[in-house]
Amino acid sequence: MNTELFTGKAEVYEKARPGYPDGAIDYIAALVPPDAVLADIGAGTGKFALRLAERGYTVLAVEPNADMRTQLARTLAPYANARVITGSAEATTLPDGCVDAIVCAQALHWFDPVAFRAECRRIGKSSGLVIAVYNNTPGGTSPARSQLATEVFFSNPVVREFPNPMDYTREIWLAYMSSHSHSPLPSDPGYTEHLVEMNTLFDRESIDGLLRRDVVTRVYSERIRIDA
Fold it and tell me: In terms of CATH architecture, what is 2-165+214-223?
């Protein structure tokens, strides 16, 4: 199941996945009231939920994977305005009409779009605002994945882009390339070969000990009809 694909990867995910730039967070803040209640669906280790909690929003961080949820709880522990919820995109366990906006970062492509849309309508207040965020690395698989997921889910979203460049050390690069759903775990037979390949790539493309990726953070937003 999709919910188990990141089991065993929470530590490297938290350590190495890109965060979210101030510009993107400022833009999202302009879309919601200052006292907004936000549901972060598929919150993972809390890299996006943290940025929302830092702004003082009430954050309901929903995550189905137990491994990721343990790290999520650590990330959000300093924030009394954030709560970790065991649930999925299709069944959040949240009450009806409880949130001002539904957000998801690096996650929409894992959701059943029909069931998730129905859940958004159920838990959202009258505004029906849904926001999806993706960190896209040019030349990687993320741009195509995010485009497909958002085209299926949204009808006519507003889209904004924000630069989010990443400079990876070798340690962080290896952790990053071990954090994906398809990456082998250290206990898997192909792990050593995977490390050799990733080290070779780093040696080939790094400059002065850093490998640069010009990541772009893309924010999609749309208001969906709650009564549809």
Answer: 3-Layer(aba) Sandwich (3.40)
Residue (of 51, 42, 39, 102) closest to 76 by Cα position: 51
CA distances from 82 to 43, 70, 148 (A): 12, 14, 30
d(CA 180, CA 64): 17
Residues 7-62 have pLDDT tens digits of 999 999 999 999 999 999 999 999 999 999 999 999 999 999 999 999 999 999 99
Q: pLDDT tens across 122-154, in order? A: 999 987 899 999 999 988 888 888 999 999 999
At residue 144, what is the residue type? Answer: A
Is the entire prediction scored with pTM above 0.90?
yes
For 50, phi and psi rounded to 5 degrees? -60, -45
Residue ranges of the domains in the chain? 2-165+214-223
